[in-house]
């Protein structure tokens, strides 16, 4: 019997500091086999590695620099190459532990972008991280917001072969270009309140779908902390849309995740 793999979560977020052990225990009780923990900025790299070492074979780390960086809790800006410069030595240090480079991507939400230059520096940071992933033979764990088409085009231009597009917010027709390139798309529990994600799942072949929670964000209820244990909500909704059994959704999405993140295989008992 297969369990779930959460292909994209922020288990290092401060939201989990108080009850992290309980959150992990509850996720295991809910049938999770593995959590893929992504990073947004260099400041949390050590914490993610420490969490993965505390739960070996269950929490698997990704390091990368997100297209949006915090200036303060209230203020964000687009990423610049200097953010990546600070991150590179730490990625290099932990490269053998990583299952992917991420969270990387493009975010063209108007409030983060004041000029074409801002978009260009996001592109440069993504291109550099795509090169690093290729050098390390790792997949990319990718964010795209208001930038579905430019993200998929850039990945293809850069010759990226292994990528997870997480919580993709673009049109199904654009996602299908990613499917042709062999990319996977992970679906969060917020699908139950997102018509766009429901349409996306209708179009995507199950062979290209993975599960994620993006915890603590993108839960079934807005403004409520999301947890990895909610992954079953994504799986159940996909099973309803696709008209296949829940078991089938779990089995196929887990096989997809193992194909995309082969380093998980050694740790997962079948
Ligand atoms: Zn994320």
Descriptive keywords:
270 residues, alpha/beta, 8-stranded parallel beta sheet, two-stranded antiparallel sheet, 10 strands, binds zinc ion
Topology:
Elements: E1 4-9, H1 20-29, E2 32-37, H2 45-54, E3 59-63, E4 68-72, E5 75-78, H3 81-94, E6 100-107, H4 116-136, E7 140-145, H5 148-157, E8 163-166, H6 172-180, E9 184-187, H7 195-203, E10 209-211, H8 231-242, H9 246-260
Bound molecules: zinc ion (ZN).
Zinc ion (ZN) is lined by residues 8, 10, 38, 103, 143, 214.
Provide an overview of this structure.
The chain is an alpha/beta fold and about 270 residues long. Helix content is about 40%, strand content about 20%. The protein contains nine helices and ten strands. The strands form two sheets. It has an eight-stranded parallel sheet with strand order 1-2-3-6-7-8-9-10, sandwiched between helices. α4 links the parallel β6 and β7. α5 runs parallel beside α6, α6 (about 170-180) runs parallel beside α7 (about 195-205) and α8 (about 230-240) packs across α9 (about 245-260). The termini are close together. The model has no long low-confidence stretch (mean pLDDT about 95). The structure holds zinc ion.
